Here is the input.
Amino acid sequence: MLLDLPPLLRLIGLALLIFAVLQLLVVAILLRVGQLRKKRVPKSGFRVLGDDALSVVEVSGSHLRPYMRGGPLYEDMLEAIRGAEREILFESYIWKEDELGQAFKEALEAKARAGVAVFVSYDTLGNLVVPRSFFRFDSAVHVLAYRAWSRPRDVFLPTRWGRNHRKILVVDRQTAFVGGYNIGATYRDLWRDTHLRIIGPGARDLAFVFADFWNARSDPSQPAIAPPKRPWAPRLRVHRNDRQRMMFPIRSVYVEAIEHAQQRIELTSAYFVPDRSLLAALQRAARRGVDVRVLVPLESNHIVADWLSRTMYEGVLGSGIRIFRYAGAMIHAKTCTIDGVWSTVGTANMDRLSLAGNHEVNVEIFDEEFAAHMSRIFECDLGNAEELSQSAWRSRPLLARAGEAIIWPLRPLV
Here is the structure.
């Protein structure tokens, strides 16, 4: 086919073909390295704050408690499930079939058999490697197995490309949990993540998010969920991304908060591949004197995302943004604190998939005491990280530079 084109177009076509082959080769090599990386035994511990350092904070009538360890979080989640009296809404992107996953499944089924209305939603793509038998529940449990593509034509509909990346638990519309933690022993024991518990009227906002998603996408044979009345709480706001409605407020909330920054930005992201506007907002903040600190994994569980992030480091460091790389464990948190006033905790990563693609949910909090907690968490995490200097980055191997140059056009896909 190329032979039928004019010489110049043939040359351009051949160059593009060679470049595409090189991209595939680099991605294949990275994926293989990623497989070998997963076989390593990770360090069995990392620095965290004691429970007494993260006290409960009251914001707009709700009581907020952040978690940076999986053990206490899962214990409190299971306790809330076992104490449910009327309704449980449970949603997880990944739900492993290990002993912890089984504990959650058994607790949910037991409450359903006891007469509690139990609604469970999970993403089928996120659980491809989990045996399908694990997701066979007691008939008393109402289940939504979310598939972004349920019909062949959905492949061609951008509104159907989003995964359900949310992690939500709401019990009796009074106690809610949301954040980065999926369900599994690996996340409990080996990953560093951040989650949030809300007790009070703010939980109804998360119940609404779950009910809205369920009612729009569950099978007609399943019962609908009556959405709760949402509180007006300007200091505690829940924002949800909905791909099918093309609603992406979380990105706008980030941009607005960054544009307000005057002193300091403390951003933690498992996958740092912001789009042009978000990156520009961070760079402008750094150039006007804001101390912008970005904490990312030294090695994440998605090596291609790591390398796509690396393609941005030259411009990031050059603008004065400081990059810290968390070593020894996978840091999966999605948090940000600005000027000791504004904070967000949620499920959305700082990449296009989360901010303009997936179904996500983040909580926005305006409170100095809560922001102080989040800053303490950030400072603790910096104790497990090393700052990347511009001189060290510029001295990286030539082969690494070549790999970055080849794959950088793939950034919009992440």
Q: What stands out?
A: The CA atoms of residues 318 and 390 lie 7 Å apart. The first helix runs from residue 7 to 38. The mean pLDDT is 90.
